[in-house]
Amino acid sequence: MSAALVISLLLPGLTFASLPTEPLSPQVTREKTLLASASRNLPVENLEIIPPPLGEIADNSCHDLPTGVGIPGFRPGIHKNDVIRMLGVPVRSSSGYWPNTRAVSYELIPEQVSLGFLFDQKSQKIRQTEASFASGVSDELVLPTFKAMLGCQMEERIQEGLQQVRQHKIRRFNFNLEKLKGVIEQEGRNRIYIGIWEADLH
After folding, report:
1. pLDDT: which is higher, 3 or 99
2. CB-CB neighbours of 104 under 10 Å
3. DSSP classification of residue 25
4. What whole-number distance in Å separates Cα of residue 152 and Cα of residue 178?
5. Which residue of 88, 96, 123, 134 shows the fewest CB atoms closer than 10 Å?
6. Which residues pair with 160 in a beta bridge?
7. Do the Cβ atoms of 139 and 166 come closer than 8 Å?
């Protein structure tokens, strides 16, 4: 009879997952027993691993590909395989609105952070990248993600546009950046949407 391994994901909004495992071999069982015996002599606080609050896991540097720190931002041109390697199977997948595209989305942190991508069916590369944030998600997380989505080409005017939308001073901010176009806009009353696409897409 197989045991159940329960992994607790402690980020807000994420749930428990129960994964079946095969019975442990006698050698592994002995090693786990030794580890458990040794751990009884350690203070409890040494055994409890709790991730930091969302506002403390931001990566302020910009990378061509996400590093796994903070909320990942993927720029247009990145291959689909790199996205799946980082994020896994999307929660939704459908034909894209624009010809020869496939749309996928991820609910990265339920009710807080969603990511979406429009892939070219032939090259399998991102043509449009999207992110939606709840208003409570801090600038320390939103801004690094936005920078990465822009391919590390953030300009002051675009950053100011982001702040104006987040502060409800304007409802929508459009921008052009070399071969990219984009929009930052209020999405309902409590969310902000960022979309960036290759200029020749639409």
Report:
1. 99
2. 21
3. P
4. 12
5. 88
6. none
7. yes
DSSP string, 66-134: --SSSS----TT-BHHHHHHHH-S-SEEEE-SSTTEEEEEEEEETTTEEEEEEEETTT-BEEEEEEEEE
Residues forming beta bridges with residue 123, ordered by sequence position: none
C-alpha 158/C-alpha 130 separation (Å) is 16
In angstroms, the Cα distances linking 32 to 26, 38, 39, 82 are: 10, 10, 10, 35
- Render pLDDT for 8-62 as a digit per residue (tens, 0 to 9): 222 333 333 333 334 444 444 443 333 334 434 444 344 443 444 444 444 556 7
In the block, tokens 């609050």 appear at: 53
Inform me whether the pLDDT recorded for 81 exceeds 90.
Answer: yes
Q: Is the dihedral of CA 103, 181, 174, 148 positive or negative?
A: positive
Rounded to a whole number of angstroms, the CA Rg of the chain reads: 21
Amino acid symbol at 146: F
Residue spans of the domains in the chain: they are 4-46, 54-198
Joined together, the tokens standing for residue 41 give: 């002599």
Report which of 112, 41, 117, 40 is spatially closest to residue 78, judged by C-alpha positions. Answer: 117
Among 118, 143, 115, 147, CA closest to 131: 115
Residues constituting the chain: 202
